[in-house]
Write a structure and sequence with these properties.
With 116 residues, this protein is α+β, with helices and mostly antiparallel strands. The protein has a single domain (3-114), classed as Alpha-Beta Complex (Aspartate Aminotransferase, domain 1). The protein contains four helices and six strands, in the order αββββαββαα. It has helices at 3-12, 53-62, 88-104, 108-114; strands at residues 16-19, 26-31, 34-40, 46-50, 66-68, 77-81. Strands 1-2-3-4-6-5 form a six-stranded antiparallel beta sheet. A hairpin with a 2-residue loop joins β2 and β3 (34-40). The N and C termini lie far apart (29 Å). This is MmcQ-like protein. It comes from Chitinophaga flava.
Length: 116
Amino acid sequence: MDIEQYREYCLSLPGVTEEFPFGEETLVYKVAGKMFALSGLEEFNSINLKCDPEEAVELRERYEGVTPGYHMNKKHWNTVDIHSNIPNKLLLQWIKNSYDLVVASLPKKEREKLSQ
């Protein structure tokens, strides 16, 4: 996956915004003001994704390219090395799972807005 594929996919999800709250080099994707994915812009080597705590541990054990979230809450975030042998289809699924996890935590009114 390259940064353009990543960017296009994230922006294709309902209600997503692209922001730079940590400076010009960290690309952050949010839904309803809450982060679900972030990566380096200049050096696109990994993606931080929100994850169910139990699934996060399972993915780390199963895939060499998945580690606890770099500079994030390690219980809820994983860092995925995009240069590892993880197929793009799986990366896209994990991005969507991260998005869905954040959406599920939103108030009902916010979730309804996104489903319109």
